[in-house]
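Structure tokens please, single chain.
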Amino acid sequence: MTWMVKLLRQMISMQSQYGAALGATCLLHYLTTSLSIRFFFHDLTVRKHEVMPLGMDYYYLYAIGKDPSHPEIRGSVRKILEKYKTKADKANCALALEAISEHARSVYEYFGFKTYLVFQFGVGEVNSKGEPDPQGKGFTAYLMLYHKDADTIFHA
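Here you go.
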């Protein structure tokens, strides 16, 4: 079983066992214990610090998603992003997240996020849809950042 499949199973298990918020926190701990994931997070952290001014605080938005079995529930991503954008603007800090699809990327761009790193994830483990495939090319993901004054203070 690949680490991606293990990761997805672990995420589903933790979210059903602990609820989405605590499940995401537990998942982050699970992720950071894996050596390959540590390198993944290290590379993203390095890029964040290249872009943002030295010492700038930021909120890391992790595991934003929607339950596909309830398509009638709308606006949850908007509520999350608007709440954290307001908090970040008041505190003069940034928001950071990763988009794992073109659709997610376009949603985040609508809310003012910009892409600062494009990377492949899951090469040799999953295909472009995230399905297990030992010859898979992985999928494209995007490190995205937001700050109310990004155009003047971020270093592209």
